[in-house]
């Protein structure tokens, strides 16, 4: 990278009030604001210093989901700050262009803090992302969309306890970027949507109501080699996808909307103006992600079994213990981990698996090649009941990292292990 810069940010976790419903204030949490958070813009090669300030009434941590940073900068449950405390983290950005996010990770209350509003985005750019010619006008044709479901009480307050279902909070009100019933105005051009499933427990299957296709260009941790044409995409909690919808090609007499194919509900209606935009490009080749023969032939050295529902969730039969290291791995060495979701007598459920501090490669699902849009860097993936997924994992840095289910209530209920990288 040509320029290596030093970037300084201050991120405060704070309490606030937000007018989600007209004329009423809802108590919320946010980073550098009342609700949700800013986009932290980073470039590959940057040295980043972030001052962390906890202005909440409770302990919190600042976790960079998807960032390949040393364990002591990762913001897991060990990095807890008490109310009023500050800390400073420093790291170098060594990974490629991607859309990541950040959220709290205090032991036992991650789910409630995220639910109440603590979540922000991280954009990494690099020489490749700047030269591809993709839509990149923030808020115009390059739009972040954080999908979260909430339950409000009769006073329009976020009610975590009321939202609690058996396996996590499933709310009946959808917020996108913290907004109720949003509508997105776009021009007749290619529009890039950076989708984040920021829900605690709900899966979304995004689809256009007209059944038209779109292109997926990026996974959790970077660009796909080529755009992948899809009619729908499912994201489990914490997964991201960048997609491009070409509104110049769609029949705008239809009322266009993104819907959730799981229940047919409208997620986001589009208002398409008559105006055409400047046409951006979707290049044929965007990245050079590869899975080598060597990686394919590595033996499995870690077996990880996800099991259970509600508060009976375990990984390899155990619940989280802050003082126990469950796995060790050598820095810079690639190992193949085999994940299995063991069904119970109820059949079991999907667990979204996430590992901190690494972008990994999905090698196979039940012995088969993963779908084209999973052949890219991932930090989270869905693990279906009775499914076996092989993943090639390498850590660039040292430290202690979490491995957990990203149904945040499962994580808080102990579906989390620790990996020590030496
Ligand atoms: Cu999204 Cu343990 O993280
Ligand atoms: Cu994470
Ligand atoms: Cu789970």
TrEMBL record:
One of the record's GO molecular function terms: copper ion binding
Source domain of life: Bacteria
Full-length numbering of the shown residues: 87 to 508 of 508
Domain Plastocyanin-like: start-end pairs: 14-128, 166-249, 297-422
Classification lineage: Bacteria, Bacillati, Bacillota, Bacilli, Bacillales
Protein name as it appears in the record: FtsP/CotA-like multicopper oxidase with cupredoxin domain
Keyword annotations from UniProtKB, A to Z: Metal-binding, Oxidoreductase, Signal
Annotated family: Belongs to the multicopper oxidase family.
Keyword Zinc among record annotations: no
Keyword Metal-binding among record annotations: yes
């Amino acid at each position: 990278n040509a320029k290596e810069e030093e970037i300084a940010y201050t991120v405060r976790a704070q309490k606030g009030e937000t007018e989600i419903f007209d004329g009423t204030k809802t108590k919320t949490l946010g980073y550098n604001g009342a609700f949700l958070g800013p986009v932290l813009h980073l470039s590959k090669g940057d040295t980043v210093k972030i001052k962390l300030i906890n202005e909440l009434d409770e302990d919190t941590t600042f976790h960079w989901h998807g960032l390949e940073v040393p364990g002591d900068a990762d913001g897991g449950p060990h990095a807890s700050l008490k109310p009023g405390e500050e800390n400073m983290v420093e790291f170098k950005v060594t990974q490629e262009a991607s859309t990541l996010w950040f959220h709290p990770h205090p032991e036992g209350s991650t789910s409630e803090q995220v639910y109440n509003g603590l979540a922000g985005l991280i954009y990494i750019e690099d020489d490749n992302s700047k030269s591809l010619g993709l839509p990149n006008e923030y808020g115009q044709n390059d739009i972040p969309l954080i999908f979260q479901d909430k339950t409000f009480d009769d006073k329009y307050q976020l009610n975590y306890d009321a939202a609690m279902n058996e396996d996590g909070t499933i709310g009946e009100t959808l917020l996108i970027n913290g907004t109720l019933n949003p509508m997105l105005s776009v021009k007749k051009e290619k529009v890039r949507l950076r989708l984040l499933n920021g829900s605690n427990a709900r899966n979304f299957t995004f689809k256009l109501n007209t059944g038209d296709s779109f292109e997926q260009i990026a996974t959790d941790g970077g660009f796909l080699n080529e755009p992948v044409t899809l009619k729908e995409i499912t994201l489990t909690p914490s997964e991201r996808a960048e997609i491009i919808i070409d509104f110049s090609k769609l029949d705008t007499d239809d009322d266009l909307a993104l819907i959730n194919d799981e229940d047919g509900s409208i997620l986001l209606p589009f208002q398409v103006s008559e105006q055409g935009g400047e046409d951006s490009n979707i290049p044929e080749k965007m990245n050079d992600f590869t899975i080598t023969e060597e990686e394919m032939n590595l033996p499995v050295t870690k077996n990880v079994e996800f099991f259970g529902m509600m508060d009976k969730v375990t990984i390899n039969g155990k619940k989280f213990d802050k003082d126990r290291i469950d796995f060790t791995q050598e820095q810079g060495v690639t190992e193949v981990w085999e994940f299995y979701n063991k069904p119970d007598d109820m059949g079991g459920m999907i667990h979204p698996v996430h590992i901190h501090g690494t972008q990994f490669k999905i090698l196979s699902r039940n012995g088969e090649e993963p779908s084209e849009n999973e052949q890219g860097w991932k930090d989270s993936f869905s693990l279906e009941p009775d499914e076996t997924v092989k993943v090639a994992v390498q850590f660039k840095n040292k430290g202690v990292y979490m491995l957990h289910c990203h149904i945040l209530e499962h994580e808080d209920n102990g579906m989390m292990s620790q990996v020590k990288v030496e």
